[in-house]
């Protein structure tokens, strides 16, 4: 009952407000003294008749518009704020208040290959025109000039790969560097790029490197492994490995080497397969003092004899497909000690040589296993 009474009261209030609005807003009400039927002539309006659209005068509806006014010029402005000229711009000294930038020391003009630092030779952190970036260029005759214009005169140009590496640019932007290992495989490099000084393992396989210079590995005291398999190396500086006191693994398979430079005495793994090495191209007694050498691969070369003396640590010796024609009693054994046994050397390959291993039985009496070869 109470709800019904409240509804009736709300309805009455709404009606009163409506009447007040109609009385004060004459434009919203029908003209005085004229009913809706009279205003719209509803009695004479036939819904079934068709409109005579052809005789319809469009000018009779509403006010006409003069389209000639559109010929006037319209000025178009810009919503962007006007930028004052440099002469009228206020000095932005208040932005720099309280901020002091440290002044950098001038870069030295010469490189310090021996001094401390992150990068190796010719990486040029001390160069005044240090560039950071890799510039990939299209293969054209203008590669060299583009590199010069980009990097200045201090530039490495890899012409065949159409890539120029600015002197002073970290190699880790060109190659992949992971925890001291640098991977530059299959990048069409024709020279060894500058390496970080903390490099321990360097891989540059299947490139087009022809010459390895002594400056390529200078000041890399932590380098333990070098893999240059599958390049076109035919020349190496004699002292290229002299500064590598930690080097233990060297892989130079599938190159064009005829002469081998001197190796560090702490080598453990040496792979020189598929080269053009001759016995004269190896240092006399070059492997004698390598007390840690375990694996020596010399197959598919042009060797005339086994490179003796061999260290006692050697486990694997592959010499197949050379030009070895004879063996001696002291090639593997000790003539002065008949009880001597070479226990570690269990894998010897001599097959593919013009050699009949049955003719040299005294050469194997100290070996735990007979070598593989022709009979």
From TrEMBL:
Family from the record: Belongs to the small leucine-rich proteoglycan (SLRP) family. SLRP class III subfamily.
GO aspect biological process, one term: bone development
Gene3D superfamilies: Ribonuclease Inhibitor
Source organism superkingdom: Eukaryota
SMART domains to which the protein is assigned, alphabetical: LRR_TYP, LRRNT
Domain LRRNT: 171-201
Cited InterPro entries: Leu-rich_rpt (IPR001611), Leu-rich_rpt_typical-subtyp (IPR003591), LRR_dom_sf (IPR032675), LRRNT (IPR000372), Mimecan/Epiphycan/Opticin (IPR043547)
Organism from which the protein derives: Lates calcarifer (Barramundi)
GO CC field: extracellular matrix; extracellular space
Name of this chain's protein: Opticin
Signal peptide positions on this chain: 1-29
Residue spans crossing the bilayer: none
Keywords: Disulfide bond, Extracellular matrix, Glycoprotein, Leucine-rich repeat, Repeat, Secreted, Signal
Subcellular location: Secreted, Extracellular space, Extracellular matrix
């Amino acid at each position: 009952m109470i709800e019904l009474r409240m509804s009736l009261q709300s309805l009455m209030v709404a009606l009163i407000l409506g009447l007040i609005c109609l009385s004060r807003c004459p434009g919203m009400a029908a003209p005085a003294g004229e009913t809706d039927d009279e205003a719209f002539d509803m009695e004479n309006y036939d819904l079934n008749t068709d409109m005579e659209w052809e005789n319809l005068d469009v000018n009779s509806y509403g006010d006409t518009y003069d389209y000639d006014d559109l010929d006037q010029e319209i000025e178009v402005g810009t919503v962007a704020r006007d930028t004052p000229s440099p002469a009228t711009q206020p000095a932005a000294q208040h932005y720099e208040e309280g901020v002091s930038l440290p002044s950098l020391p001038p870069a030295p003009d010469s490189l310090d290959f021996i001094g401390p630092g992150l990068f190796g030779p010719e990486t040029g952190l001390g160069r005044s025109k240090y560039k950071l970036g890799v510039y990939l260029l299209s293969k054209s005759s203008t590669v060299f000039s583009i590199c010069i214009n980009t990097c200045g005169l201090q530039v490495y140009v890899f012409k065949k790969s159409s890539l120029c590496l600015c002197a002073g640019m970290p190699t880790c932007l060109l190659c992949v560097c992971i925890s001291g290992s640098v991977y530059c495989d299959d990048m069409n490099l024709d020279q060894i790029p500058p390496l970080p000084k903390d490099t321990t393992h360097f891989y540059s396989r299947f490139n087009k490197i022809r010459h390895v210079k002594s400056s390529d590995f200078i000041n890399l005291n932590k380098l333990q492994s070098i893999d240059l398999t599958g390049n076109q190396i035919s020349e190496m500086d004699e002292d290229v490995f002299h500064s590598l006191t930690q080097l233990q693994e060297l892989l130079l398979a599938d190159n064009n080497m005829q002469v081998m430079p001197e190796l560090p005495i702490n080598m453990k793994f040496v792979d020189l397969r598929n080269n053009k090495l001759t016995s004269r191209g190896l240092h006399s007694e070059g492997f004698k003092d390598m007390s840690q050498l375990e694996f020596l691969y010399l197959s598919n070369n042009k060797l005339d004899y086994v490179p003796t003396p061999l260290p006692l640590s050697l486990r694997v010796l592959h010499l197949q497909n050379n030009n070895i024609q004879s063996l001696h009693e002291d090639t593997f054994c000790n003539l002065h000690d008949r009880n001597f046994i070479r226990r570690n050397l269990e894998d010897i390959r001599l097959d593919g040589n013009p050699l009949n291993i049955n003719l040299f039985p005294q050469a194997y009496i100290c070996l735990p296993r007979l070598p593989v070869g022709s009979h």
